[in-house]
Amino acid sequence: MSELGGRSRLKIIVDGAPAIAFVGAYVLTRDFRLATWCVVIGSALSLGLGLIVERRVAPLPAVSGALALIFGGLSLALKNNDFIKMKMTLVDGLLGAVLFAGLALGKNPLKAILGGAFSLPDHAWRTLTVRYAVFWWVCAAANEWVRRTQSDHTFVYFRGGVIVLAVIFAFAQTPFLLRHHVQIGGPPEPTPPEPSSKAPAAPDPAP
Fold it and tell me: Engineered SS bond to 96: which of 20, 28, 85, 133, CB 3.0-4.6 Å?
């Protein structure tokens, strides 16, 4: 799985930077509004860097970044923290919905997103897609419960926990990925020789 190097790692860091900036800014300043500014600015930078590095913006990071700009902007303009909190529910819920909808339509959106990093048979992609879809829907439900019932302070630390949990969840898939990984361009498996259709030659008569 050496394909997951350089550019792929940079992409993961760039896509996750706004969420990390949000939690980090709040932990350092205890200022939710400043943390929201970090999400908005970080999302704009993330989209710009993604465009520079890959010459395009992948659909899901583009939607997530756009929602961060919209809901973060609404939170700042209306001075209502609920908007940026709802953005987290929408993004997590949308991720799960896209994955499940793709499977229902006979597609595999996770393979389309990560196919350049991993080479797996189709049945393994389906299993991995279901796992990630359930994970994101659980995160969305938990986010909405925390948003409705807990303080801003608790919400920020909850989001930090989600980041850590997402990393742990991703690493937990490693044995599955290794078990089903298909080596591209490796040596072909040896094939047994075909049996000869000719009858064996008769032995020479004894002198």
Answer: 133
Look up residue 135 and give its DSSP letter: H
Output the furthest CA–CA distance in the chain (Å, rounded).
Answer: 110
Amino acid identity at 165: L
Q: For residue 18, which amino acid is it?
A: P
Sign of torsion, CA 42 66 68 7? negative
How high is the mean pLDDT in each 10-residue block of the chain (207 residues)? 47 72 91 91 80 70 82 92 92 90 85 68 86 94 95 94 90 87 51 49 46
Contacts of 27 (CB under 8 A, 6+ apart): 156, 160
Residue 38 and residue 17 in contact, taking contact as beta carbons nearer than 8 Å: no
Sequence ranges of the domains in the chain: 6-180
What is the rounded distance in angstroms from the CA atom of residue 37 to the CA atom of residue 39?
5
Query: Which amino acid, 153?
Result: H
CA distance 124 to 83: 37
Q: How far is Cα of residue 46 from the mean position of the Cα atoms in its chain?
A: 15
At 207 the pLDDT is: 43
Residues near 117 by Cβ (< 8 Å), separated by ≥ 6? 1, 3, 4, 8
